[in-house]
Amino acid sequence: MASAFLLLLITIPAALSHSILQFPHVSDYDRKLRADDNIYCDSWRFSVETNDAGSWDSIPSRCVAFVQDYMTGDRYASDSAIVSNFSLAFGQGVKLGGDGKDSWVFDIDETLLSNLPYYQEHGFGAVTFDEVSFDKWVDLAEAPAIPASLSLYKGLQRLGFKIFLLTGRSEFQRNATVNNLVYSGYSDWERLLLRGPSDKGTLATEYKSKKRAELINEGFRIHGSSGDQWSDLLGFAVARRSFKLPNPMYYIA
Amino acid sequence: MASAFLLLLITIPAALSHSILQFPHVSDYDRKLRADDNIYCDSWRFSVETNDAGSWDSIPSRCVAFVQDYMTGDRYASDSAIVSNFSLAFGQGVKLGGDGKDSWVFDIDETLLSNLPYYQEHGFGAVTFDEVSFDKWVDLAEAPAIPASLSLYKGLQRLGFKIFLLTGRSEFQRNATVNNLVYSGYSDWERLLLRGPSDKGTLATEYKSKKRAELINEGFRIHGSSGDQWSDLLGFAVARRSFKLPNPMYYIA
Which of B5, B10, B22, B88 to probe by mutation at the A interface, max A CB count within 10 Å? Predict the structure, then answer.
């Protein structure tokens, strides 16, 4: 105890100087967060992508320009590309069983397909989600593939993975979804799982966990899972590795 | 089927135009990732903070300047501040039981205390972790508090949460750790949990899950958990809400 006390005395001046050198006061950062949209919105994006923000309805109004720049400039495509690269590298390291049971689960919206053309017309997530107009957009079946995801998808197929598509879209959207997927370059998935009548009102995390559990019960080994929402990836019956794609536009619980 | 086919035909031109407008080819982005350190390193940071990168030993050598800028400029402090704000907002919404069992778990390094002065001398994570020199640094007990975390810590105490400190540091570092915590402004925690002899060789995720499970067995409700590593937050006996603090300097499995 005496030596601990001595150590405390000795270390105070050094620690104090570091403390002052390294960090301004919290209130200074609160002021900066308030004042500088770019710093604020970049931190907001950090909190969203790590799930620290929890549930949210729409992007902060001061971040519309930031999210627009992020989504339409280099950064979104670059972030998507690096996630795809890490995913494929993991897939390449998996020793497949040769029994057709090695599988990968993909979400669809903002994972395989991009709804950016829709969100460009709807404030990049600054407007609260409108199911009617979004369903119309889905019916158009015009969503382009996210190039890095299409590349990953094909790479995993070449490696021999069975692909399951697990989406929050509903059964009534099956045709439009298939058309859109095929058109934008996706093919030969094992199964497309959409929300049926019994899944209505279930939160995404639970619905997707249940569906993954059913696959596992069928004997499939879910090595990887790709999704832009944490509700695609968390819960139970999770994949060995989960890959979070970027999406600062909306949140699904 | 006929209508699906018709829909496919109708939607091709529009989807094609979107596809071309929105995204360049994957190979273009691979080239860009290779060419532009800032874009690459920002995407690398995304992959690290979301855990997409999985296990890694040291930061890419081309990202040393990027990580240095991030850690010593506004962004690290800003990211830390927003996480603290979201954490406190969640804490404020918790209805406490009044039985002294409502609790919050904090990791220590890069969560309550910053080892930035050490990492400034060790390439900001570009050099593989050296236990000997890091243990010497810990013995100095000079690590400053991360201001936003100190503010959160005190805020949670004011709300009535019991604070548990759960660290990968070892029992032999207890004195230095206590001295450092007290010096940098932390006090009145409920318990400081360090790795004992039986925890040696256990991965952090398992070690920390076990310790949280013991707390839950004692009747504590773990509402929140704060850590800079996913191994602080994932596993079993997880908190109701987990808060990932930024750390692009090192990874602990």
Answer: B22
User: Could you tell me the CA-to-CA distances from A179 to A144, A166, A191, B123, B215 in Å, in that order?
Assistant: 12, 16, 14, 51, 52
pTM (2 decimals)?
Answer: 0.88
Nearest CA in chain B to A1: B175
Edge-to-edge order in the sheet of strand A191-195: A191-195, A162-170, A102-106, A221-227, A241-244
* Distance set, CA B140 to CA A2, A98, B143, B195 (Å): 16, 55, 8, 19
Residues A184, A207 contacting (CB under 8 angstroms): no
Cα separation of A50 and A46, whole Å?
Answer: 6
Find chain B residues with C-beta within 8 A of A182's C-beta.
Answer: 8
Say which residue the tokens 């536009």 belong to: A249
Tens of pLDDT along B93-115?
A: 999 999 999 999 999 999 999 99
Give CA–CA dist A84/A231, Å, rounded.
Answer: 19
E-strand stretches of A82-220: 102-106, 162-170, 191-195
Q: If residue A225 lies in a helix (H) or strand (E), which one and from where to where?
A: strand A221-227
| Cα gap B221→A193, rounded to integer Å | 36
Sign (positive or negative) of CA dihedral A229, A230, A234, A238:
positive
Asked whether residue A118 carries a pLDDT value surpassing 80, the answer given is: yes
In B, minimum Cα distance to A89 occurs at B53
| Per-domain residue ranges of chain A | 77-244
Residue range A77-244 forms a domain whose CATH class is: alpha beta
Tell me if B79 and A43 make a contact (CB, 8 A cut-off).
Answer: yes
pLDDT of A14 > 60? The answer is no
Between A251 and A10, name the one with better pLDDT: A251
C-alpha span between B204 and A168 (Å, rounded) = 34
CB pair distance less than 8 Å for B47 and A82: yes
- What is the CATH class of B80-244? alpha beta
Does A15 contact B183 at a Cβ distance shorter than 8 Å?
yes
User: Could you tell me the pLDDT band of residue B29, with boundaries at 50, 70 and 90?
Assistant: low
- Cβ–Cβ contact B55 with A under 8 A: no
